[in-house]
Design goal:
9 strands, globular, two-stranded antiparallel sheet, 7-stranded mixed β-sheet, 6 helices, single chain, Spore Coat Polysaccharide Biosynthesis Protein SpsA, Chain A, 207 residues
Length: 207
């Protein structure tokens, strides 16, 4: 079994997109494709099964043909709740799967070898969590999570104390994997209309 086939992926699309005026930021167009479409195209070849984490009606994502899974915990608790939803679905439907790869839905240029490199680093360091980084900044939404982390994340969410994902991953036994950012930062995320404009010339370079 290849690395990609042994990994389940989840795209996190549960954010409130306040800096974009609300709504589903991932459905915004960038050079002829939505941000979500670009994310799916880059993530799908890297995993055996791809899920989409989003709350509310799943009909708005019907074109992706992906299984849409909502947060188990209510009140939009953030990306850790999305990771939990992915791990829970993986545990229920694919109990033999060991790893969940997570992707942001507003970061359309992430590396096409992301999962392969994260999996290699996790194996080499015997870590339960591998986190992507660029320009010496971690990008915890782009991470590889071992199935055994489900219980720990569930306990954290049940506690009512919901830390920033950045802070939570730093408290774990994790390995950080640095990705090159020479021509552009592959983890450029689209938070504002200005970010969307800045991404246009980069999209022209991406095949």
């Amino acid at each position: 079994m290849s690395i990609s086939q042994s990994v389940v992926g989840v795209i996190l699309a549960g954010g409130l997109a306040k800096r974009m005026g609300g709504g589903d930021k991932c459905l915004l167009p960038l050079a002829g494709k939505t941000l979500l479409q670009r994310t799916v195209e880059r993530a799908q070849p890297q995993v055996g099964l791809l899920l989409l984490n989003a709350n509310g009606s799943s009909l708005r994502f019907a074109r992706t043909r992906l299984p849409v899974i909502p947060d188990v915990f209510p009140n939009n608790l953030g990306p850790l709740a999305g990771i939990h939803a992915g791990l829970k679905r993986m545990h229920d439907d694919n109990p033999d799967a060991e790893w969940l790869a997570s992707f942001a839905s507003d970061t359309p240029f992430f590396p096409t070898d992301l999962v392969e490199r994260l999996r290699g680093a996790a194996a080499a360091s015997n870590s339960l969590l591998a986190v992507a980084a660029s320009k010496n900044r971690t990008h915890p939404i782009f991470s590889l999570w071992h199935a055994s982390l489900l219980e720990k994340i569930e306990e954290q969410l049940q506690s009512g104390d919901i830390p920033r994902l950045q802070d939570w991953v730093k408290q774990q036994k994790m390995v950080q994997v640095e990705f090159a950012a020479d021509a552009f930062d592959p983890f450029l995320n689209i938070n504002t209309p200005q970010d969307l404009y800045a991404a246009e010339p980069i999209a022209a370079l991406i095949k």
